Amino acid sequence: MAHHFKEEDIDEFRECFFLFARNGQIRTLDELTVIMRSLGMSPTINELKGYLKEKGGKMSFPDFLKVMHAHSRVENLPKEVVDAFKAGDPGKKGTIAGSHLRHLLLHWGEHLSAKEVDQIFREANVTSPNSLVKYEDFVKIACAPVPDYY
């Protein structure tokens, strides 16, 4: 499976894997959940259970790479988020009011804090609650990986 990922990605996967699976094996759903989500994946609980069951309840690092490859092929979070915005955009204008976007981020899903929403809005250059936000541009910024400063 190593040939499906860049060397630096595998190094990051390995570091995360062995940080949370200290005995070299993933043995619990919690371990797999934390590791995959720490690496930016968003698998559902049912997907996670299936991956662990598929591997007999425990997973080595090579098994984990296979799971990461399989999951990365089915998950496209930015596209899923844009599709959700499009579904709520009957006029197909490609925009959402800043105030409505703020409301969604504060009250739906993971319920971001006002401080977190303000930070995302600053990064996405949303300057006013009255402004119209191009949701495809917003999603690109909001789903971008967090910079590594270490």
TrEMBL record:
<dbReference type="InterPro" id="IPR011992">
    <property type="entry name" value="EF-hand-dom_pair"/>
</dbReference>
<keyword id="KW-0677">Repeat</keyword>
<protein>
    <recommendedName>
        <fullName>EF-hand domain-containing protein</fullName>
    </recommendedName>
</protein>
<dbReference type="GO" id="GO:0016460">
    <property type="term" value="C:myosin II complex"/>
</dbReference>
<dbReference type="InterPro" id="IPR050230">
    <property type="entry name" value="CALM/Myosin/TropC-like"/>
</dbReference>
